[in-house]
Amino acid sequence: MTSSSPTEKVSDKARGSKSSSLTNLSDEKAPVKVDSRKVSTDDLVDEEPTPFRWSDWIFRRKGGPRDANAISTRRSVYDDPVLAKHYWPKDSYENTHRFDPDARWTYAEERKLVRKIDWKVMLWAAISFSALNLDRGNLSQANTDNFLPDLKMTTNDFNLGNSIFRLAFLSAELPSQIVSKRLGPDVWIPIQMCGWSILTMGQFWLSGRTSFLVCRALLGFMQGGFIPDLILYMSYFYTKNELPLRLSLFWISMHVCTILGSFIAFGVLRMRGVLGREGWRWLFLVEGGITLLIGIATFFKMPPGPTQTRTWFRPKGWFTEREEVIAVSRILRDDPTKCDMHNREALTIRKLWRALCDYDLWPLYIIGLLFGIPAAPPAQYLTLSLRNLGFNTFETNLLTIPSSVATIITMWLIAVVSETVHDRAFVSMTEDIWCLPFLIALRLLPNSPNPWIFYGLATALLSYPYTHPIQVGWCSRNAGGVASRTVNASLYNMFVQASGIISSNIYRKDDAPMYRRGNSWLIGVCAFNCFILYPGVKAYYIWRNRSRDQIWDAMTSEQKSEYLATTKDRGNRRLDFRFAH
């Protein structure tokens, strides 16, 4: 350090860029007032969102003004003259040239930018995710068209196929993330989409049990890692408080896709007999073709990052210089760890090992393993159960729609609640609390239940508030750093896929048709999640934060600066990091 203050040094570096000074930008029409207040690192790590407002759900600032022309720049560590230098972006970070710690912007400017990001980034991410779920969900629809009898398979073969798919899916998670971090998610994601779409279309030629199992393995391997890749990509554009609600919309698109898929299946399955082929074969061919077109389009719809949207087929890009400054500066003010790696920088073995050994995220992995088990078998077997109760192929496909619509509503509401009350653990527990009474009711049904009573209970059960998006955002927030976020998102999703393997083997042929033994297991797991797992994880993170507070709060500003300058701790291992719970 020279004799000049860190703030002066940071500002001089920022002004070296043509776009750094807010009043000198080419598209600036009037000077914007600069908020010169300084903040401490305590303000940074303890910051909480404001209560939710339907009229302004994107921006949650504690005590924030409603005036659209007021400054919305969030206070951050970059305003601290002692600590700012320790958080400055690496020279290799692709957005360094647009970062300006002196930049100030208004609520109106930020709203306009975030809306543009929503339309440009999130919308296509949701479409891409829908393509994944269209190809993942068509097996259930194929079951309504005598898929298993046509291939001379049993429900146990069906369970084995689902287990192999999930095993291949989770096996591909880490390798996919390593490739994605090297090539960039904007390149790897469309490659994955085109690959699994071709495999989906190839299921038109399935001939029996062996070809079915091979296709399930290949599909799982191609689709593995897609979800963490897409979440990492979205984190380049959104703050930590914006991402969970976007992830909820992300998973809402999955259920919208389920509804659309039911209507597609309703029409395509009527093609049974065309060219002497079964309807489910045409279903795989048609839906695989749709997702292949989406995959090809994705090559042109995903820029590498907010300052890399200009290319030969998009010469003007998506954002102005000013918008790029705001986009980068607000993201780094929210989370300075996002600038510790280039978006084409490969993961090293050391970084990979460090992320694997991050025991503070292991509680979330356990949640990932167990939270989805109670609802998964009833959802997986819904179409088969309805067929066994006497509903025909087309009735069954249409009867799956109400629970999908209800889940869209409850998922969005629970995400809003989570951000409003600033809680992850207890809000996420709501999914299992919802499922418990309906699982008990299904367990107590007679051997030959009224079909509509069974359908009503199953639909109510599957209308649960899906909390997976909250937990994905929770894991991302607690990872702290691009490298750890990349790996830990994959590890979390691997445990979620392992949960799917367990779920696929709970309902067995010798327990059909009411699966009383299986439902008893589901009730036990659900009760454990509600009364032990989630409260225990919350208690753990509260304890970890209090332990760090005792050390960090006792340090002077100079001691904190010395710690940040000399520590070898990274990401969530640092004393200034606090875990969300």
TrEMBL record:
Sorted UniProt keywords: Membrane, Transmembrane, Transmembrane helix, Transport
Please verify whether the record's keywords include Transmembrane: yes
Region named Disordered: 1-42
Annotated InterPro entries? MFS (IPR011701), MFS_trans_sf (IPR036259)
Per the record, the domain of life is Eukaryota
Record SUPFAM superfamilies: MFS general substrate transporter
GO MF, one term, reads: transmembrane transporter activity
Is this entry keyworded Lipid metabolism? Answer: no
Membrane topology qualifier: Multi-pass membrane protein
Biased composition range(s): Basic and acidic residues: 26-41
**Where in the cell?**
Membrane
Membrane spanning stretches? 250-269, 281-300, 362-384, 396-417, 521-543
Q: Which GO terms describe its cellular component?
A: membrane
Protein name according to UniProt = Allantoate permease
Q: Which organism is it from?
A: Candolleomyces eurysporus
Q: Give the classification, highest ranks.
A: Eukaryota, Fungi, Dikarya, Basidiomycota, Agaricomycotina
